[in-house]
Amino acid sequence: MRKLVGLSLALVVVALAGCATTGHKNYEAFKAADPHSILIVPVVNRTTNVDAPDYFLSTVTIPLAEKGYYVFPVNLVKRSLEDDGLSDADMVHSASTAKLCGLFGSDSVLYVSIERWDARWALLSTTVTVGLSYAIKDCKTEQVIWEQKETMVYTPQGSNSGNVLGDLIADVVTAAIAKAAPNYMPLAIQANARAFQPAGTGIPAGPYHGLYKKDGYY
């Protein structure tokens, strides 16, 4: 069974369906804010998957740190907000940005909403989808200085060995595995990369990066 699972997972093909904005964003507000630190607050979950926020939060710190920003530990932030009476993500997102920044000494806040985090069966395949909305607000003005939406999808690839019955069985098994235990993490990681990294739509290199103010944004 392990060999079958391994074979099935090896047949998975990742299809990227990023809803990235075409062209270049206007970075004037971002440049004026010039954030050095980013506070990642609890994620609003608009799906029925109760585990989605915790899984997602484990993927978002590293790409922001690699871009050259100081990122506050997400678990510490979550606990501190709960102690301050902000135990619900919707409450956090509706709270004053300046108040959140004052609690931690940050100069910007990243808000994320999970729009899709699901696995849907269709005929002989299962499609796994992760949809995310990102926004960074400046602590001083409380205005959005960067935002992006990404949707990532993967569908198990159909078998094509020439054995019709064998391929059909393999496709059913592969789809069942994807439905029973969908792996959302690679899609979340890819969504973060597509959101933060690309020139013209991502975020500029931060002050702890060698390309700070040298990467064409400033």
Helices, strands, pairings?
Layout: H1 2-10, E1 12-16, H2 28-33, E2 37-40, E3 44-45, H3 52-66, E4 70-71, H4 74-83, H5 89-94, H6 97-104, E5 108-122, E6 125-138, E7 144-156, H7 164-180, H8 185-196
Parallel strand pairs: 2-4, 2-5, 3-5
Antiparallel strand pairs: 1-7, 5-6, 6-7
Helix pairs in contact: 3-8
What is this structure, in a nutshell?
With 218 residues, the chain is an alpha/beta fold. The protein has 8 helices and 7 strands. The longest helix is centred in the last third of the chain and has 17 residues, at 164-180.
Structure notes:
By secondary structure, this protein is α/β, with parallel strands linked by helices. It has a domain at 23-151 and 184-196: Rossmann fold (3-Layer(aba) Sandwich). The chain is 38% helix and 25% strand. It has eight helices and seven strands. It has helices at residues 2-10, 28-33, 52-66, 74-83, 89-94, 97-104, 164-180, 185-196; strands at 12-16, 37-40, 44-45, 70-71, 108-122, 125-138, 144-156. Strands 1, 2, 3, 4, 5, 6 and 7 form a seven-stranded mixed beta sheet that branches. β6 and β7 form a beta hairpin. α3 packs parallel to α8 (185-196). It is globular, with a radius of gyration of 20 Å. The protein starts with a helix and ends in a 22-residue tail after the last helix.
